[in-house]
Every structure is written in structure tokens, then in C-alpha cells.
What we know:
By secondary structure, the protein is an all-alpha fold. The chain is built from eight helices and no strands. Helix 4 (about 70-105) runs antiparallel to helix 6. The protein starts with a helix and ends with a helix.
Amino acid sequence: MQLQILVEGSLSHYSKLFKMKADAAKADVFYLFSGSWKASVERLFLWIGGSRPSQLLNIIVPQLENLSDEQITSINNLRLSSQQVEDAFSLGLEKLQQSLVDNILIDPLVEGNFGLQMAAAMDNAKALASFVNQADHLRHQTLLYMSRILTIGQTAQGLHAMGGYFHRLRTLSSSWAARSCDPAFTTQSSNSVFFEP
């Protein structure tokens, strides 16, 4: 029973996080896209203001114990549907970014009204915020569907694996930054940080 309370608390935490990100997207969508709050290695894997749900499934699933055939099939279907939506979002985002570039590159002296061009660019920025919200909705729904497929114990394992993954990414960032500042820092000493039993 206590494990269920912890799992529900963690899922509730993620729900609140996605609501906070929606507010942040309204305030400054470019900040969310840049991933400035994330460690440098985390930014390497950034996709529309967060992680790809299919990538997280690839990280979580190998850590789960005693999956039934039905669970494996459901997880594979979830992964496939997540990848399809991610691909569609990525394509739409490419088109939106090109539209934003086109609006910014138009010479206001040649083409006419600078105000109209900036208004179009602002509309593109609002659409970027919508992409962040949709991507977060996909992340949230994937997390919730995953928790419905799994038992409470397996969900706890998955959340733990996800937390461990992000912790190791931040550790790698810190170790890399320390290495670049300290010439005495060796690769051997940093390797022990990343491979937990």
C-alpha cells in the first residue's frame, strides 16, 4: 500500500511539472526549447523541451522484472505509437521553424510592413508554445499509459530507472565539466561514477 502511495505521488508530481511547463511556455517558449535549466548532457537529448517518450521507454523497459507477454505487447505498441507521434511533431516543428526563419529574413524595407512580419513571427512563437504543450501531453500520456500497463511494483521500478537515468546524465555533465577544469581528472576515475551495479 505504501508503494502505491509513493507511485501515485510520483505520477502526481509529473502532472504538476507538466502544468508548470505549460505556464513557462506561455512566458518564454524559447527558454524551454533551449533547455537552459538542464545539464549540458541532458540538452544533448532534448526534444521539444523534454525527452522523447519512446527514448524513455527504451531506458525503462530493460529495467523491469517479470513482464508478461501481454505487457510486452502493450509496451511495444505504446513505443510504436509514441514514435509515430514524435515523428509527426518533429516534421511539423521543422516546418514551423522554417516559417519563423522566413518571417524573420524578409527585408522590411523591401517587402513593406515590419509590424506585420513581426506579428507573423510572434504567431510562430505562439505555435512553438503549442508544440511544447503537445509534446508534454504526449510525455504525460505515455507515462500514464505505461503505469496502467505495469503493476505498482513495476511502475516503481520504471520511475526509479527513469530517475537514475537523469541522475547519471547530470553526473556525466558534472564530471565532464570538472574534467575540463581540472587537468588531473582522469577518465578512469570518472568511469566508476557512471556504472552502478
